[in-house]
Each structure stands twice: as C-alpha cells, then as structure tokens.
Amino acid sequence: MSKTKAYFIVLVIRFLYALGQVVAKAAFNQGLSVPVFVFYRHAIASILLGPVAFIIERKRAPQLSYKIAFKLFLHSLYGISIAGNIFSIGLRYTSTTASSAICNLLPVMTFLLAAIFRMESLKWKRVHGVLKASGIALCIVGVVILAFYEGPVIKSINHYHPIHNPVPAKQTNGSKMRWILGIFLTTLSVFQWSLWTVLMGPMLEEYPSKILTATLQCIFTMIQSFFIALALERDYSKWKLKFDICLLAVLYCAIALSGISYYLQAWAIQLQGPVFLGMSMPLTLIFTIVLSSIFLGEAISLGSVIGGVLMVGGLYNVLWGKRIEESPEKDTIKEQNHDEEANLEKHRKKERGKTDVSSPLCQRFSSLLPHFLPAVSRTDPSNSRIQGLLLAVGNVWEAVRVQDLVSSLPIFSG
C-alpha cells in the first residue's frame, strides 16, 4: 500500500512541476516581468507559510541567533532569489522542454558538489565509481547538444493552442544566441540550487527546525526579490497584475510549488527515500513535453530530445552507482546484526544451561539430597531406571556437587 501511495504522490509532484513551468512560460510570453514574478511568488508563499510555522513551531522551535539568521539570509540570496531569477530568465529565452531537461542535472550536480566537499566518494576503480563518472559525462554532453544542436523540428499535432506562444519554431541567428544564453542561465541556476542543497545539510544540523527554516528563507527571499525587482524593473506598470495568465502563474507557483509540492516531496521521501524521488525526475520532462505541446504549441527539436535523453541517462547512471555503493554497506550491517543476534542467542542458551547455586530452589534441593540418596542406595543397583534418574540428577545439579554425593554411596563403590 505504501508503494502505491508513493508512486501516486510522485506522479502528482512531477505533474505539478511540469504544469508550473508551462504556466510560467505562458505568463512570460504574455509580458510578465521575471523579477516581479519571483517577488510576488515568494510574497504569497510567505503569507501562507508564516502562520503555519508560527502555530506549529512557536513552542518547540530552537532559539534563533543572529549568526543562524545571517546564514539563512545568505542561503536565500544565492540559492533562491538569484537562482530563481536566473532560471526564470533562462525559461523565457528557451523552451519548457529544454528547461525541464536541464532540471534533471540537479541530483547529478548535487552529487558532484558533495564529492568536491568530501561528503560523497567517487572511486574510479570501482563499478559504482565508473557509473557515477559516466553519468556526469553524459549530462555534460547532453547540455552541450541541447545548447548548440537543433536538428529537425517536430511540430505539435494540436493545431489549437489555448495560450499563444510567440517563440518561433526555427531559430534565427539572434534567437540562436538567445537560446544558448538561456541554456547557460538555466544550467547556472541548477548549479546554484545544487550548491544550496549541499550546504543546507549542515545548516539543518545546526538549526533543525525544517518548517521554520523554509519559512524564514521564503521571507528573506521575498525581501531580496523586492529590491532586485526594484533595481531591474523600472516600468511600474509591470507590477500590476490583471486577472489573466500572469496572476494565475503567480498564484499557482506560490501555492502548488512553494507550498503543496514541498510537503508531498517530504512525504515521498519518508515513504520510499530520496533516491526514489530523484529517479522520478524524468517524469517532469515527459509531462512538460505533452503539456507544452498541447497548451503552447511548442515545437520539439531533435537536439532537445537527444540532449534530454542523455541527461536522463546520466541521472540514472549516477543514481545506479549510488545504489550499488550503498548495497554492500547494507549487507554488512545485516550480517553484523545477524552475528550479534546469533551470539546473543548462544549466550542465552549457555546461561539457561547453568544453574545459580545461590538460588533458593537450588539450596532447597541440596538440603533434601542427603535424605533422598540413602533411600535410593537400598534399591537394586541393576535397576536401569534408578541409574538413569541418578545420571539425570547428576547432570542437572552438577553445580551443587551432586555427583560427589552420589559417588560416596555403596552402590557406586568398588
């Protein structure tokens, strides 16, 4: 049941992210300012998360020092505010398919940075090391092909598109440079998210309140994004949101991506682990291709398909190598636990075979033996039942020297 639930949750998460990219791309095509979008998104998310964090964490949250608050401010600046603006600009310059394909680099870049910081190992002479290295190489080749090779274009089979997409199917020289810049910016934003993911591990050990940490970073991002938008967007008419796709994109990304998806991801990790969640990332690419073709009428180039396939293959190579690396450790732990249980059971059996001489039952039986053994000595020595009884008594009560008492009887003498 838990596996079925985890699969369903993962499908919902990937669909939410794919739909979020399509809606955001449509809003950018309609003229929505990128910095304004990032600011409004995190402002609404802060309004939603703030009361929840206050209610849940107001009594049990650890004390927040100025040092921790400053660290969270810096993490928010490079990992969310700047990265969010850069990714949105890259999405505006490219296509939803290309940006979704590049998002598959996130687990690979996270592993690469963790290896640089000595949090992960990369052993070149082992099978798992070769798989990880080949996965990183495939991802790099995929990004290069995605940026510089277009190839034949597959047009959308749907001729009616609810949202107009002004991006041309074939790229001119100017749009080609714009496309390459968009690929570079999207890749840079994924690198920043990977760095944020790696450095947030030690941060959560220092300040373990996850809900309050997410809320504080959302508030810091809102403040930072406001000043970034003031600096980059001087046309104040762009700050006004109408009841159109722009407002829908802001509300959807704030509620579905910054709110619901975070909770669903934590739930999926709890059910099946982080590797399971990482392996589902290519589903976002599939959903994005279908949704962008239906709603935006985006043409899919051969270069995007080849680059996406290579990046997905690189992702699975890294995850496969990671799983192979962890398997011997799990087997070793199981063997150690089995050996400990076997030794414990052996010790218990050994203890059950012993008798405590100082126990009341043992002392009482010892006091009755002098009265019992003379009666036995008057019986027929050839009686096998009596001999068997005495042998059993001697074995069981060896600790109280029953054999010494029995050996003094006439039936066992010369």
Give me the secondary-structure topology.
Blueprint: H1 2-29, H2 34-57, H3 66-93, H4 96-102, H5 105-116, H6 127-148, E1 153-154, H7 173-206, H8 210-232, H9 245-272, H10 274-279, H11 282-296, E2 300-301, H12 302-353, H13 360-377, H14 384-396, H15 402-407
Antiparallel strand pairs: 1-2
Describe the structure.
It is a single chain. With about 425 residues, the chain is mainly alpha-helical. The protein folds into 2 domains: about 1-125 and about 150-300, no CATH class; about 360-410, no CATH class. About 75% of the residues lie in helices and about 0% in strands. Mean pLDDT is about 80; it is low at about 385-395 and about 395-414.
What is the radius of gyration?
A: 35 Å
Overall spatial form: globular
Q: Which consecutive residue ranges, at least 5 long each, have pLDDT under 50? A: 386-394, 396-414
Major sheet: 2 strands, antiparallel
Strand order of the largest sheet: 1-2
Helix percentage: over 70%
Question: What structural class is derived from the secondary structure elements?
Answer: mainly alpha
Distance between the termini: 76 Å
Number of helices: 15
Which oligomeric state applies? single chain
Helix/strand order, N-terminal first: HHHHHHEHHHHHEHHHH
How much of the sequence lies in strands comes to: under 5%
Domains, number: 2
Number of strands: 2
Average predicted local confidence, pLDDT: 78
Main location: membrane
Subcellular location: Membrane
Family: Belongs to the drug/metabolite transporter (DMT) superfamily. Plant drug/metabolite exporter (P-DME) (TC 2.A.7.4) family.
GO molecular function: transmembrane transporter activity
